[in-house]
Amino acid sequence: MNLKFIFKLIKKEISSVNKIIFDQLRSDVQLVNRFIKYFNQNSGKKIRPIITLLFSKILGYRGKKDIIAASLIEFIHIATLLHDDIIDSSIIRRGRKKSSIVFGNEISVLVGDFVYAKSLKMIVGLNSKKVLNLISKTVHMIIEGEILQLSNRTLEISQETYMKIIYQKTSSLFETAAYILTFICNVDSDKKIALKNYGRHFGNAFQLINDIKDYQNCSNNFISKGNDLNDGNFTLPLIHVMQKVSKKESMEIKKVIQEGKGRSILRRISFLMKRYGSLEYSRKIAESEIKIAIQSLDHFKCSSYKTALIKLTTSIID
Q1: What confidence tens digit (pLDDT) does each residue in 105-156 have?
Q2: Which of 296, 261, 254, 49 has its CA nearest to residue 155?
Q3: Does this model's pTM top 0.85?
Q4: pLDDT tens across 63-77, in order?
Q5: DSSP letters of 131-169?
Q6: CATH 1.10.600.10 correct for 4-317
Q7: Could you give the CA distance from residue 228 to residue 251 in angstroms, rounded to a whole number?
Q8: Which residues fall within 8 angstroms of residue 130, CB to CB, at 6 or more apart?
Protein backbone atom coordinates (compact mmCIF):
# COMPACT_ATOMS: atom_id res chain seq x y z
CA MET A 1 0.00 0.00 0.00
CA ASN A 2 1.51 3.32 -1.11
CA LEU A 3 0.73 5.90 1.57
CA LYS A 4 3.31 8.55 0.58
CA PHE A 5 0.67 10.87 -0.89
CA ILE A 6 -1.48 10.59 2.23
CA PHE A 7 1.40 11.01 4.68
CA LYS A 8 2.42 14.26 2.98
CA LEU A 9 -1.03 15.71 3.64
CA ILE A 10 -1.01 14.94 7.36
CA LYS A 11 2.73 14.64 8.05
CA LYS A 12 2.66 17.01 11.02
CA GLU A 13 -0.39 15.34 12.58
CA ILE A 14 0.96 11.80 12.15
CA SER A 15 4.23 12.92 13.73
CA SER A 16 2.26 14.23 16.73
CA VAL A 17 0.35 10.94 17.01
CA ASN A 18 3.61 8.97 16.94
CA LYS A 19 5.03 11.19 19.69
CA ILE A 20 2.00 10.63 21.92
CA ILE A 21 2.19 6.88 21.37
CA PHE A 22 5.93 6.85 22.14
CA ASP A 23 5.54 8.99 25.26
CA GLN A 24 2.51 7.17 26.64
CA LEU A 25 3.93 3.68 26.15
CA ARG A 26 7.03 4.34 28.23
CA SER A 27 7.11 2.66 31.62
CA ASP A 28 9.27 2.49 34.74
CA VAL A 29 9.18 -1.29 34.27
CA GLN A 30 11.96 -2.24 31.84
CA LEU A 31 10.26 -5.46 30.71
CA VAL A 32 7.35 -3.38 29.43
CA ASN A 33 9.76 -1.12 27.55
CA ARG A 34 11.54 -4.09 25.93
CA PHE A 35 8.21 -5.60 24.96
CA ILE A 36 6.94 -2.33 23.43
CA LYS A 37 10.22 -1.76 21.59
CA TYR A 38 9.97 -5.19 19.96
CA PHE A 39 6.29 -4.67 19.14
CA ASN A 40 6.91 -1.21 17.62
CA GLN A 41 9.69 -2.47 15.35
CA ASN A 42 6.97 -4.01 13.24
CA SER A 43 4.07 -1.68 13.87
CA GLY A 44 1.37 -1.27 11.26
CA LYS A 45 0.59 1.62 8.93
CA LYS A 46 -1.74 3.32 11.44
CA ILE A 47 -4.66 3.20 9.03
CA ARG A 48 -7.25 3.94 11.74
CA PRO A 49 -5.66 7.18 13.02
CA ILE A 50 -5.04 8.22 9.40
CA ILE A 51 -8.79 7.96 8.78
CA THR A 52 -9.51 10.06 11.88
CA LEU A 53 -7.02 12.75 10.85
CA LEU A 54 -8.22 12.93 7.23
CA PHE A 55 -11.83 13.36 8.33
CA SER A 56 -10.67 16.00 10.79
CA LYS A 57 -9.33 17.96 7.83
CA ILE A 58 -12.50 17.39 5.79
CA LEU A 59 -14.67 18.59 8.69
CA GLY A 60 -12.49 21.67 9.09
CA TYR A 61 -11.67 20.98 12.73
CA ARG A 62 -9.30 23.41 14.42
CA GLY A 63 -7.65 22.29 17.62
CA LYS A 64 -5.59 19.52 19.19
CA LYS A 65 -8.26 17.00 20.15
CA ASP A 66 -8.10 15.26 16.77
CA ILE A 67 -4.52 14.21 17.59
CA ILE A 68 -5.63 12.78 20.94
CA ALA A 69 -8.62 11.04 19.30
CA ALA A 70 -6.42 9.50 16.58
CA SER A 71 -3.90 8.30 19.20
CA LEU A 72 -6.71 6.88 21.32
CA ILE A 73 -8.05 4.88 18.37
CA GLU A 74 -4.57 3.43 17.72
CA PHE A 75 -4.18 2.53 21.41
CA ILE A 76 -7.45 0.58 21.36
CA HIS A 77 -6.20 -1.21 18.24
CA ILE A 78 -2.83 -2.05 19.84
CA ALA A 79 -4.50 -3.40 22.99
CA THR A 80 -6.90 -5.64 21.05
CA LEU A 81 -4.02 -6.80 18.84
CA LEU A 82 -1.92 -7.87 21.85
CA HIS A 83 -4.80 -9.87 23.28
CA ASP A 84 -5.75 -11.31 19.89
CA ASP A 85 -2.17 -12.56 19.40
CA ILE A 86 -2.68 -14.88 22.37
CA ILE A 87 -6.01 -16.22 21.15
CA ASP A 88 -5.00 -17.22 17.61
CA SER A 89 -2.51 -19.95 16.84
CA SER A 90 -0.33 -18.06 14.38
CA ILE A 91 3.36 -17.64 15.12
CA ILE A 92 4.07 -14.86 12.62
CA ARG A 93 2.52 -11.40 12.42
CA ARG A 94 3.65 -8.98 9.71
CA GLY A 95 6.61 -11.14 8.77
CA ARG A 96 8.15 -11.79 12.21
CA LYS A 97 7.44 -13.69 15.41
CA LYS A 98 4.59 -12.26 17.46
CA SER A 99 5.42 -10.51 20.73
CA SER A 100 3.51 -13.17 22.65
CA ILE A 101 5.77 -15.88 21.17
CA VAL A 102 8.96 -14.00 22.06
CA PHE A 103 7.96 -12.72 25.52
CA GLY A 104 5.16 -15.09 26.58
CA ASN A 105 1.40 -14.82 26.97
CA GLU A 106 1.47 -13.45 30.52
CA ILE A 107 3.31 -10.24 29.65
CA SER A 108 1.25 -9.86 26.43
CA VAL A 109 -1.98 -9.85 28.45
CA LEU A 110 -0.59 -7.39 30.99
CA VAL A 111 0.84 -5.00 28.39
CA GLY A 112 -2.52 -5.12 26.60
CA ASP A 113 -4.15 -4.09 29.89
CA PHE A 114 -1.47 -1.41 30.32
CA VAL A 115 -2.38 0.05 26.91
CA TYR A 116 -6.10 -0.02 27.75
CA ALA A 117 -5.34 1.90 30.95
CA LYS A 118 -3.44 4.51 28.94
CA SER A 119 -6.48 4.77 26.63
CA LEU A 120 -8.68 5.71 29.58
CA LYS A 121 -6.26 8.52 30.44
CA MET A 122 -6.56 9.84 26.86
CA ILE A 123 -10.37 9.83 27.06
CA VAL A 124 -10.13 12.06 30.14
CA GLY A 125 -8.04 14.47 28.04
CA LEU A 126 -10.87 14.77 25.51
CA ASN A 127 -13.28 15.82 28.29
CA SER A 128 -16.33 14.36 26.55
CA LYS A 129 -18.88 11.98 28.05
CA LYS A 130 -20.08 11.21 24.53
CA VAL A 131 -16.60 10.06 23.46
CA LEU A 132 -16.32 7.99 26.65
CA ASN A 133 -19.65 6.35 25.82
CA LEU A 134 -18.58 5.77 22.20
CA ILE A 135 -15.25 4.15 23.13
CA SER A 136 -16.78 1.97 25.85
CA LYS A 137 -19.41 0.74 23.38
CA THR A 138 -16.75 0.09 20.73
CA VAL A 139 -14.48 -1.90 23.06
CA HIS A 140 -17.50 -3.86 24.29
CA MET A 141 -18.44 -4.65 20.68
CA ILE A 142 -14.90 -5.73 19.75
CA ILE A 143 -14.68 -8.11 22.70
CA GLU A 144 -18.16 -9.47 22.07
CA GLY A 145 -17.21 -10.03 18.41
CA GLU A 146 -14.13 -12.00 19.42
CA ILE A 147 -16.25 -14.10 21.80
CA LEU A 148 -18.85 -14.67 19.07
CA GLN A 149 -16.10 -15.89 16.72
CA LEU A 150 -14.61 -18.07 19.46
CA SER A 151 -18.00 -19.61 20.29
CA ASN A 152 -18.51 -20.47 16.62
CA ARG A 153 -15.11 -22.06 16.02
CA THR A 154 -15.30 -25.41 14.22
CA LEU A 155 -18.96 -24.65 13.41
CA GLU A 156 -20.13 -24.05 9.86
CA ILE A 157 -21.62 -20.56 10.08
CA SER A 158 -23.65 -18.52 7.60
CA GLN A 159 -22.35 -15.58 5.61
CA GLU A 160 -24.68 -13.36 7.65
CA THR A 161 -23.10 -14.49 10.94
CA TYR A 162 -19.62 -14.02 9.47
CA MET A 163 -20.43 -10.44 8.46
CA LYS A 164 -21.75 -9.76 11.96
CA ILE A 165 -18.51 -11.08 13.48
CA ILE A 166 -16.22 -9.00 11.27
CA TYR A 167 -18.30 -5.88 11.90
CA GLN A 168 -18.03 -6.27 15.65
CA LYS A 169 -14.40 -7.34 15.94
CA THR A 170 -12.89 -5.22 13.15
CA SER A 171 -15.19 -2.74 11.41
CA SER A 172 -16.59 -1.20 14.60
CA LEU A 173 -13.21 0.39 15.40
CA PHE A 174 -12.86 1.73 11.84
CA GLU A 175 -16.39 3.11 12.20
CA THR A 176 -15.41 4.83 15.46
CA ALA A 177 -12.20 6.18 13.87
CA ALA A 178 -14.26 7.73 11.07
CA TYR A 179 -16.84 9.55 13.18
CA ILE A 180 -15.31 10.09 16.63
CA LEU A 181 -14.74 13.77 15.83
CA THR A 182 -18.47 14.35 15.32
CA PHE A 183 -18.69 14.35 19.12
CA ILE A 184 -16.11 17.12 19.30
CA CYS A 185 -17.19 19.42 16.45
CA ASN A 186 -20.61 20.23 14.99
CA VAL A 187 -21.62 17.85 12.18
CA ASP A 188 -25.12 17.46 10.71
CA SER A 189 -26.88 14.09 10.94
CA ASP A 190 -26.50 13.18 7.25
CA LYS A 191 -22.73 13.59 7.43
CA LYS A 192 -22.61 11.62 10.69
CA ILE A 193 -24.34 8.69 8.98
CA ALA A 194 -21.98 9.03 6.00
CA LEU A 195 -18.93 8.94 8.29
CA LYS A 196 -20.22 5.84 10.08
CA ASN A 197 -21.00 4.12 6.77
CA TYR A 198 -17.53 4.87 5.44
CA GLY A 199 -15.83 3.38 8.50
CA ARG A 200 -18.07 0.33 8.63
CA HIS A 201 -17.74 -0.64 4.98
CA PHE A 202 -14.04 0.22 4.84
CA GLY A 203 -13.54 -2.10 7.83
CA ASN A 204 -15.59 -4.87 6.24
CA ALA A 205 -13.48 -4.72 3.07
CA PHE A 206 -10.27 -4.57 5.10
CA GLN A 207 -11.14 -7.75 7.01
CA LEU A 208 -12.42 -9.57 3.93
CA ILE A 209 -9.14 -8.98 2.12
CA ASN A 210 -7.18 -10.17 5.18
CA ASP A 211 -9.27 -13.35 5.24
CA ILE A 212 -8.68 -13.90 1.52
CA LYS A 213 -4.92 -13.47 1.98
CA ASP A 214 -4.90 -16.31 4.50
CA TYR A 215 -5.61 -18.70 1.62
CA GLN A 216 -3.61 -17.09 -1.19
CA ASN A 217 -0.30 -18.52 -2.45
CA CYS A 218 -0.33 -21.33 0.08
CA SER A 219 2.67 -23.02 -1.51
CA ASN A 220 4.77 -20.07 -0.26
CA ASN A 221 5.26 -19.07 3.38
CA PHE A 222 3.19 -22.07 4.41
CA ILE A 223 3.73 -21.40 8.14
CA SER A 224 2.05 -17.99 7.92
CA LYS A 225 -0.97 -19.27 5.97
CA GLY A 226 -4.12 -21.10 6.99
CA ASN A 227 -4.28 -19.62 10.49
CA ASP A 228 -8.05 -19.21 10.34
CA LEU A 229 -8.44 -22.76 9.08
CA ASN A 230 -6.17 -24.11 11.81
CA ASP A 231 -8.05 -22.16 14.49
CA GLY A 232 -11.38 -23.38 13.16
CA ASN A 233 -12.59 -19.93 12.07
CA PHE A 234 -15.07 -20.10 9.21
CA THR A 235 -14.25 -16.99 7.17
CA LEU A 236 -16.02 -16.16 3.91
CA PRO A 237 -13.75 -18.13 1.51
CA LEU A 238 -14.25 -21.28 3.62
CA ILE A 239 -17.98 -20.64 4.07
CA HIS A 240 -18.33 -20.37 0.28
CA VAL A 241 -16.37 -23.51 -0.55
CA MET A 242 -18.23 -25.57 2.08
CA GLN A 243 -21.48 -24.66 0.32
CA LYS A 244 -20.09 -26.01 -2.97
CA VAL A 245 -18.46 -29.32 -2.00
CA SER A 246 -20.32 -32.62 -1.67
CA LYS A 247 -21.91 -33.58 1.66
CA LYS A 248 -19.32 -36.33 2.15
CA GLU A 249 -16.40 -33.98 1.51
CA SER A 250 -17.97 -31.35 3.75
CA MET A 251 -18.19 -33.82 6.64
CA GLU A 252 -14.56 -34.90 6.14
CA ILE A 253 -13.32 -31.32 6.15
CA LYS A 254 -15.34 -30.39 9.25
CA LYS A 255 -13.98 -33.43 11.09
CA VAL A 256 -10.37 -32.39 10.45
CA ILE A 257 -11.12 -28.79 11.48
CA GLN A 258 -12.82 -29.92 14.69
CA GLU A 259 -9.76 -31.99 15.53
CA GLY A 260 -7.63 -28.83 15.30
CA LYS A 261 -5.69 -30.07 12.26
CA GLY A 262 -6.98 -27.56 9.72
CA ARG A 263 -3.56 -26.61 8.34
CA SER A 264 -2.95 -30.25 7.32
CA ILE A 265 -5.63 -29.87 4.62
CA LEU A 266 -4.75 -26.31 3.63
CA ARG A 267 -3.54 -27.23 0.13
CA ARG A 268 -6.63 -29.37 -0.43
CA ILE A 269 -8.90 -26.51 0.67
CA SER A 270 -6.97 -24.06 -1.52
CA PHE A 271 -7.43 -26.35 -4.52
CA LEU A 272 -11.19 -26.53 -3.85
CA MET A 273 -11.38 -22.75 -3.46
CA LYS A 274 -9.70 -22.38 -6.83
CA ARG A 275 -12.11 -24.86 -8.40
CA TYR A 276 -15.23 -23.15 -7.04
CA GLY A 277 -14.01 -19.55 -7.24
CA SER A 278 -14.29 -18.94 -3.50
CA LEU A 279 -11.54 -16.30 -3.36
CA GLU A 280 -13.00 -14.49 -6.36
CA TYR A 281 -16.44 -14.56 -4.73
CA SER A 282 -15.03 -13.13 -1.49
CA ARG A 283 -13.11 -10.49 -3.41
CA LYS A 284 -16.30 -9.34 -5.16
CA ILE A 285 -17.97 -8.91 -1.77
CA ALA A 286 -14.95 -6.84 -0.65
CA GLU A 287 -15.19 -4.73 -3.81
CA SER A 288 -18.88 -4.04 -3.15
CA GLU A 289 -17.99 -2.91 0.39
CA ILE A 290 -15.32 -0.59 -1.02
CA LYS A 291 -17.85 0.87 -3.46
CA ILE A 292 -20.28 1.67 -0.62
CA ALA A 293 -17.48 3.25 1.44
CA ILE A 294 -16.47 5.51 -1.44
CA GLN A 295 -20.08 6.44 -2.22
CA SER A 296 -20.50 7.65 1.37
CA LEU A 297 -17.85 10.29 0.64
CA ASP A 298 -20.28 11.96 -1.82
CA HIS A 299 -21.61 13.92 1.17
CA PHE A 300 -18.34 15.86 1.30
CA LYS A 301 -17.00 18.41 -1.18
CA CYS A 302 -13.92 17.66 -3.28
CA SER A 303 -10.55 18.20 -1.63
CA SER A 304 -7.11 16.62 -1.47
CA TYR A 305 -8.18 14.96 1.79
CA LYS A 306 -11.22 13.36 0.17
CA THR A 307 -9.00 12.16 -2.69
CA ALA A 308 -6.64 10.68 -0.10
CA LEU A 309 -9.50 8.74 1.52
CA ILE A 310 -10.58 7.40 -1.87
CA LYS A 311 -7.00 6.31 -2.61
CA LEU A 312 -6.76 4.71 0.83
CA THR A 313 -10.01 2.82 0.27
CA THR A 314 -9.20 1.53 -3.22
CA SER A 315 -5.73 0.48 -2.05
CA ILE A 316 -7.28 -2.19 0.22
CA ILE A 317 -7.98 -4.41 -2.77
CA ASP A 318 -4.29 -4.33 -3.73
Answers
A1: 999 999 999 999 999 999 998 999 999 999 999 999 999 999 999 999 989 9
A2: 254
A3: yes
A4: 999 999 999 999 999
A5: HHHHHHHHHHHHHHHHHHHHHTTTS---HHHHHHHHIII
A6: yes
A7: 18
A8: 183
